[in-house]
Design goal:
It is built from nine helices and twelve strands. With 276 residues, the protein is an alpha/beta fold. The protein has a single domain, classed as Vaccinia Virus protein VP39 (Rossmann fold, 3-Layer(aba) Sandwich). The strands form three sheets. The chain has a seven-stranded mixed β-sheet, with helices on both faces. The chain starts with a helix and ends in a 16-residue tail after the last strand.
């Protein structure tokens, strides 16, 4: 092996090791901070302000969050799938006090952090937190918890990305959004945000009737599972079959805003939009 190549490999190893130490330390620190509710700095997202036990305003500059806030109006219903510790849910509640958010987070430990942040802002009447994963079936599924809490996933490979590793596994409840909406347990959404570390296609397939009937705007962040095509070609084809336009934002292929055409896919009726 040549000296330059060896130096390059050592530099790359050093970078990865350093990144692991930084991330591992950060996630350990915020776990302690949430558990003991020590320090909740103020976060600003656009004109909205809220407090959370995250130590930095992580995801506060996300292009999808900006797009959601720009479109969210009074009385709108937002379904936040893969809510994590709640930056999207908290920002919506802070920006639009009459909006309602249903936040789904499958990772039990992270969901507890989300509840802590919602309580810290006294948003309990605005943000309905569900310790449930959404998918295309009902029951339970094995969830891989990661040493980087944010990377927890139903796929082991996703939970061990970025030098992380699988911490343990836990069985978590899974539901279909269509079933929850049909039962009246969740109001028909105006906005559907999906960021679930590789299982977005499953979430959307379990929401097909909701997409057909109620026409929410979809904010989607693709993640690969096993192969790159799962959450790009499959999701794109599925949404287009339902008469959605897909637009990437800021040149990012990982930030999709998917807007319905003005009429139902079969051209028969105007879309149903519920602001109740």
């Amino acid at each position: 092996m040549s000296v330059p190549r060896r130096l390059h490999q050592l530099a790359r190893l050093g970078f990865r090791t350093g990144r692991f130490l930084v991330f591992a330390t950060y996630y350990s620190a915020i776990a302690v901070n949430h558990r003991h509710e020590l320090y909740a700095p103020t976060k600003r997202v656009g004109d909205a302000t809220f407090r959370s036990y995250e130590l930095v305003n992580k995801h506060g500059r996300d292009v999808l969050l900006r797009q959601l806030l720009a479109r969210c109006g009074p009385g709108d219903v937002v379904v936040d799938v893969g809510a994590n510790t709640g930056v999207y849910s908290l920002a919506v509640a802070a920006a639009e006090p009459t909006a309602r958010v249903v936040a789904f987070e499958a990772n039990p430990a992270v969901c507890a952090q989300l509840r802590t942040n919602v309580r810290r802002n006294e948003f309990e009447t605005r943000v309905d937190v569900r310790a449930v994963g959404l998918g295309d079936d009902t029951g339970t599924r094995r969830f891989y918890r990661s040493t980087y809490d944010e990377l927890g996933s139903f796929a082991a490979a996703n939970a061990s990305a970025w030098e992380a590793r699988v911490r343990d596994t836990v069985e978590v409840p899974i539901a279909r959004l269509d079933d929850l909406v049909a039962a009246g347990d969740v109001a028909p959404p105006n906005h559907l945000k999906v960021d679930v570390e590789g299982f977005g296609y499953d979430v959307l397939r379990g929401a097909e009737e909701t997409l057909r009937r109620h026409r929410p705007v979809v904010y989607f962040e693709p993640h690969a599972v096993d192969d790159e095509e799962r959450d790009t070609d499959a999701v794109a084809g599925f949404l287009r079959s339902l008469d959605y336009r897909i637009r990437t934002r800021d040149g990012r292929e990982s930030a999709w805003v998917c807007e319905p055409e003005s009429r139902e896919p079969d051209g028969s009726t105007e879309p149903t939009r519920s602001n109740s």
